[in-house]
Structures are given as structure tokens and as C-alpha cells.
Amino acid sequence: SKPNVWQGERIFCGQILTSTQDILFSEYIGGNNLLLSYGNFFGYNFEDAIVLNKKIVYSQLFTSLHFKVYEIIFNSINKFSFEISTINLPKKSFYSKRNLDFFGIIKEGSKVLNNDILVSKVLITNINISLLPLYNLIYILFGKEIKNVKDKSISISFGNSGRVVKTELFSYSSKIKSYLGYYLKCRVYICKQRLLSVGDKLCGRYGNKGIIAYILSSNDLPYTNTGIIPDIISDSLGIPS
């Protein structure tokens, strides 16, 4: 963002102090101006389909950022069963835990791929040894309680890879914990940069829209006598739609 005022200026109520790159002369700018050509291009732009110049993808005029939020809660069911976060996960490779910190939570700024662990979550259940004679014998011999450990870690699903921009931890007191049912909540924000691709929809200023059916380089597109190459090739049948 850029400032619209300077130091020492007297400001008034309702005055705009800053503006982003989408605001020009106090007006919001939606989209970019492209050079459009009407014509049939080997049937690829039939009806509302459009052909796009690849330089638009390289210039990142329509590059967008998509955010996805993951929330993980840790329950404390009773004194025999509770959930914790730890990096010592059973039967997990070092590669899947490479971006975790000491507490088993993903680090900010890490790039996560498919099946990478965001938050390690382990359910520990203390077995009541008074009900099982075999466990009671092990407790007498070794002096240790038998615990059942179950891995319930949260991993990245397919197609949602990106970069971790922020992690948040929320802890609750005993009174709020009894109302919510959990004592700790972890929230992870993942950002993914997405370029234009086949299947995306573009819309004009007056509502005429089209689906990108083919992306070609500038060398394969038609040009005028002066060497002007269009950015978009659309069919005249797509104007009413």
C-alpha cells in the first residue's frame, strides 16, 4: 500500500489515508486491460471458449493467492485418555517430519507438499491394569504402565500444497475446556500461488465471460501487418453468452 497523505498534513473524518495497487484516483480497478481479437482459431474458441496468449501467464497479471486454514484440536477425554503433540511419532519417516519443530508443529515459512505432516497428534490411552491380569504382571515386574498410542496426525491432502504463512495456538482454562470439550487448538494458514491454466474463467467488464480452452505462445498466434499479437482470441458467438 502507498500513503495518500504526508507528514504534518491535517486530515479530516472520512479522508482516505492509504491506497493499494488496485485503487487509482480513489476508484477501484478490477482486472487488467487486454488486447482482444475476434475470429475462429481452428475451433479451439468455439462459442464461449477462448484462446489465451502465454505471455499473460508469464507476466502474472491474473496470478492469485489461495488460502486454506487447518484447525486441529487436542482433547482431554478423561484421566485415562488424552491427546498431545510431539515430534516422536511412531512409524513415521524423517522426511515427513522435516518441517516440524520440537513440539511437533509445522514451522512458519515451510513449504509443504502432499502427505506432509502439519501437526503431530498422538492419542495416549492408559490401560486400566486392574482389569487385565497380564498387564498387572508386567507392571509388577517392570514398574511401568502399559499405554496404547495411536497416531492421529494431520497431513496435507492431495492438491493443497503450498507455504505455511502463519501458525496460531489457543489454550483454554479448565472452565472453558469443560464447555468446549478440548484444551488446546492449533490453527495453520497455508498459502498457494495459482497461475492461469486451462479451465479457468475470464470475465469482461460488461459480464461477457469465457473459459480458457487453449494457451499458446506468441509465435503460434496470428498477428497483424504491423506485428501486433492479440492477448485473447474469442469467437463472435461468445459475445451474447
From TrEMBL:
Can you tell which superkingdom this protein's organism belongs to? Eukaryota
Q: Does the keyword Transcription apply?
A: yes
Which top class of enzyme applies to this chain?
Answer: transferase
Per UniProt, residues of the DNA-directed RNA polymerase subunit 2 hybrid-binding domain are: 3-241
List the Gene3D superfamilies.
2.40.50.100, 2.40.50.150, DNA-directed RNA polymerase, subunit 2, domain 6
Q: Which Pfam families match?
A: RNA_pol_Rpb2_6
Record's GO cellular component terms: DNA-directed RNA polymerase complex
- Which UniProt keywords are listed? DNA-directed RNA polymerase, Nucleotidyltransferase, Plastid, Transcription, Transferase
- Asked if the Swiss-Prot or TrEMBL record annotates the protein with the keyword Transferase, the reply is yes
Task: Give the E.C. number(s).
Answer: 2.7.7.6
According to its UniProt entry, the protein's GO biological process terms are: DNA-templated transcription
Molecular function (GO) terms for this protein are:
DNA binding; DNA-directed RNA polymerase activity; ribonucleoside binding
- Family affiliation: Belongs to the RNA polymerase beta chain family.
What is the name attached to this protein's record? DNA-directed RNA polymerase
Taxonomy of origin reads: Eukaryota, Sar, Alveolata, Apicomplexa, Conoidasida
